Amino acid sequence: MDPQQMAPSGPRKKRPRQVGASVASPPHDIKFQDLVLFILEKKMGTTRRTFLMELARRKGFRVENELSDSVTHIVAENNSGSEILEWLQVQNIKASSQLELLDVSWLIESMEAGKPVEMTGKHQLVVKTDCSGSHNPSFQKTPPLAVKKISQYACQRRTTLNNCNHMFTDAFEVLAENYEFRENEIFSVTFLRAASVLKSLPFTIISMKDTEGIPCLENKVKCIIEEIIEDGESSEVKAVLNDERYQSFKLFTSVFGVGLKTSEKWFRMGFRTLSKIRSDETLKFTRMQKAGFLYYEDLVSCVTRAEAEAVSVLVKEAVWAFLPDAFVTMTGGFRRGKQIGHDVDFLITSPGTTEAEEEQLLPKVINLWERKELLLYCDLVESTFEKSKLPSRKVDALDHFQKCFLILKLHHQLVDSGLSSREEGKTWKAIRVDLVMCPYEHRAFALLGWTGSRFERDLRRYATHERKMILDNHALYDKTKRIFLKAESEEEIFAHLGLDYIEPWERNA
Ligand code: CTP
Ligand code: MN
Ligand code: MN
């Protein structure tokens, strides 16, 4: 067993680096002086590692017993690039930009050939940065030091669901939420931006040095990072989590239809639990809040992907009954690859329909579900869309498309072919569903907007500040040329903005 691997290594303990470590097994002549190999034992096992090391040395390769500064190539088996990086980070070793991460197949082929074979993509272990299971070859194979400049805009970063910095981003999100509850928008945005940028990093921050060159990390933020690195937690976050106001707001806003204003009111009135609020006779609830309380348990338990797929079938069935040509696209978090969500979002659009047909679709769909007794709550918002209007300058403005916010009854038997049997009695689950109907020529903008996440905000910020353009869910306007830029797809919108295309699953900023 490699003693380096056996030694317990907390993130704070600095391991002395071995400079110019000994070359093992001198009896073998080294034929290839430029290569210094280290074979990773992780997932390979001691026996196989020893065997391969011995064999490689006999073939003239220089193989180190231990990882040292002189190593140029790490050879691994059954490990991904990110797993190796993670291992390096745990060892507290920062790989230099020259360090190559190679699959064992390269070593085996080289030994067969009697000389190092060319290192091609199939040998090189790149770090996985998306959740589609594919490897992104554009990603650098080297850890922190070699990372190229990170943009302050989320729309210039690829943010997948593989977040290596949960420790920090979870903390920032608590703080951001607390500031939001206290209506301190500036600090809230500070922490949200910090969380967003850390989510895009392909490595875990283990020391303050790693934060150098990363944008959006204000002093306030860095202090929290430092505390978490040193103590494993932040006292400020701990205090917020124990704060009565924070806890109450968190609880109250978990009810569908309850926002900051209502939470504030209930908190001031001295309420701390939902059951007290529910049973209070003097309180007046909106229709939305009544539904929120009625289906509370179902709505707080998140929507799974299987449930979302089942809802998708329901939506398509209903939409296609009236508009067979319509496109129905699941948007929101699920389109970004999330496995759970608080609701399921759909964008509906249809080529060659009249305005009247378009306007009638959602009411017809709602009516159909009502007749089938699937509609538990419905709020239909009529379109306020005027073609002549410029895109809104407000980054957070909602769009003008016709839409409905619903709660649907989803029968368990429709999910996973009814395989998962639930508790006796209730045979369905209440699910929040959002439907948006948009004119066909605006579909790319609507899709981009409704896919989210806050990524969207940054795209608008970027358009405004860097391109003198105005972007919203309907259109893109070039202020210099004074024209609307048309787009048939999201790719075209990115191209208009002069941005590299970012896939939906890379928009989890
Ligand atoms: N959106 C919007 N206009 C609204 C409501 C939402 O443009 N009136 C956009 C938001 O930018 C958001 C997306 O639609 O990114 C989906 O909204 P939401 O369902 O709230 O968020 P999700 O990202 O889907 O998160 P979750 O998985 O929790 O549902
Ligand atoms: Mn959603
Ligand atoms: Mn939604």
From TrEMBL:
Classification via InterPro entries: BRCT_dom, BRCT_dom_sf, DNA-dir_DNA_pol_X, DNA_pol-X_BS, DNA_pol_B_palm_palm, DNA_pol_lambd_fingers_domain, DNA_pol_lamdba_lyase_dom_sf, DNA_Pol_thumb_sf
SMART domains: BRCT (SM00292), POLXc (SM00483)
A Pfam family matched in the record: DNA_pol_lambd_f
Chain positions covered by the region annotation Disordered: 1-25
Reaction equations catalysed: DNA(n) + a 2'-deoxyribonucleoside 5'-triphosphate = DNA(n+1) + diphosphate
Cofactor(s) for this UniProt protein: Mg(2+)
CDD domains: NT_POLXc
EC assignment: 2.7.7.31
PROSITE patterns reported in the protein's UniProt record: BRCT, DNA_POLYMERASE_X
CC annotations in GO: nucleus
Residues annotated as binding Mg(2+): D343, D345, D434
Keywords: DNA damage, DNA repair, DNA-directed DNA polymerase, Magnesium, Metal-binding, Nucleotidyltransferase, Nucleus, Terminal addition, Transferase
A single BP term in Gene Ontology: double-strand break repair via nonhomologous end joining
Location in the cell: Nucleus
GO function terms (MF aspect): DNA binding; DNA nucleotidylexotransferase activity; DNA-directed DNA polymerase activity; metal ion binding
Family designation: Belongs to the DNA polymerase type-X family.
General function of this protein: Template-independent DNA polymerase which catalyzes the random addition of deoxynucleoside 5'-triphosphate to the 3'-end of a DNA initiator. One of the in vivo functions of this enzyme is the addition of nucleotides at the junction (N region) of rearranged Ig heavy chain and T-cell receptor gene segments during the maturation of B- and T-cells.
Subunit (UniProt): Interacts with PRP19 and DNTTIP1. Forms a ternary complex with DNTTIP2 and core histone. Released from this complex by PCNA. Interacts with TRERF1.
Protein name per Swiss-Prot or TrEMBL: DNA nucleotidylexotransferase
Species of origin: Camelus ferus
Lineage: Eukaryota, Metazoa, Chordata, Craniata, Vertebrata
Gene transcribed to yield this protein: DNTT
